[in-house]
Amino acid sequence: MIKRLMQGGLALSLMLISLALWGQGRLDIQGVKEGLYMITGAGGNIGVRLTEEGVILIDDKFPQDFEEIQSLVASVSDLPVKYVINTHHHGDHSGSNASFLEFAEVVAHKNARDNIIRNNQDGAPRIVFVDETAVFLGGVEVQAHYMGTGHTNGDAVVYFPDLKTIHGGDLLHTTAPFIDYGNGGSSRGWVSTLNGMLTLDFDTAIPGHGPLMDRRDVVNFRNQMETIRQRMTDLIRDGLEPGGALDAIRDPTLSWTQAENGLFMTRSVTGLFVEIATEIE
Ligand SMILES: [Zn+2]
Predict the structure, then answer these.
(1) 126 C-alpha vs ligand 1 centroid, how far in Å?
(2) Quick one: which of 9, 50, 106, 270 has the fewest CB in 10 Å?
(3) How remote is the CA of residue 94 from the centroid of ligand 1, in Å?
(4) Which residues have a Cβ under 8 Å from the Cβ of 242 and sit 6 or more positions away?
(5) Cβ atoms within 10 A of the Cβ of 18, count?
(6) Which residues contact 252 (CB under 8 A, 6 or more apart)?
(7) What does DSSP assign to residue 125?
């Protein structure tokens, strides 16, 4: 009897564990504004803009997410995806490009396409832009602006003018940003790019990762980038050595430096030291 109970308990636990694991990999879709949705879950947030002639996606997560993205889009529209705009080349934002290219067009900044090819990723976009471009479909306009370097050298700021909403890709990150120096990223460029972003008339922003932001969050993000740059500048002027940067940059008022496992502390500080040291040489 006890043995049977234990076996039953074990089977139940295994079932719960596998349900939890199954649930972890799942994507989800949520409404942002009329005609605009966001697909969340592992990988970059996807913007889903519905029109009367088809769907425009902003980013497409990893290659293995293609089927699930398609079924989530089908849950809010009967029409197919016609365009994908990549915010940048990283594989968690452009991973399903190759699958979408079978029946849709993928648009990205010229440098993002170059990065996709240089990094041997699949699904290079067939259409690129330099300063700005727009997709017009079913009476809806979706703009893509290049406002300078930041997360990489090929970040698009996607703007939905009728909805006063932007998709900032990884130029916006809820926890802490990754300055991808290996692909042309720059903290200095990032401040100026965020100022460019703030010239657009928006009240809502989809970040590359994390929950929706409002305009105030974007201003705060810009401010933290400026403050962190200034802090690193002061520290280097006071004689900071590269090896001490990770410890020295920590400050309770700077949330990015408090996220120990965040992309700022784990992947950006060393490069930031070099960037700022070079600036003030
Ligand atoms: Zn990225």
Answers:
(1) 20
(2) 9
(3) 10
(4) 270, 273, 274, 277
(5) 10
(6) 258
(7) -
Domains of the chain: residue spans and CATH = 2-279 (3.60.15.10)
Give yes or no for a contact between 228 and 258, defined as CB atoms under 8 angstroms apart. no
Residue 24, amino acid: Q
Q: Count CB atoms within 10 A of the CB of residue 186.
A: 21
pLDDT in tens, 171-216: 999 999 999 999 999 999 999 999 999 999 999 999 999 999 999 9
**Does pLDDT of 259 surpass 60?**
yes
How far away, in angstroms, is 208 Cα from ligand 1 center? 7
**CA 153 to CA 190: how far, in whole Å?**
10
Report the alpha-carbon distance of residue 115 to residue 94 in Å, rounded. 11
Ligand 1: centre distance to CA 88 (Å): 7
Tens of pLDDT along 28-52? 999 999 999 999 999 999 999 999 9
The rounded Å distance from CA 91 to ligand 1 centre is 8
CA distance linking residue 30 with residue 39, whole number of Å = 7
- Give the pLDDT confidence score for residue 79 in this predicted structure: 98
Q: How far is the CA of 175 from the centre of ligand 1 (A)?
A: 13
For ligand 1, the distance from its centroid to the CA atom of residue 11, given in whole angstroms, is 40
- Whole-angstrom CA distances from 175 to 144, 217, 259 are 24, 12, 7
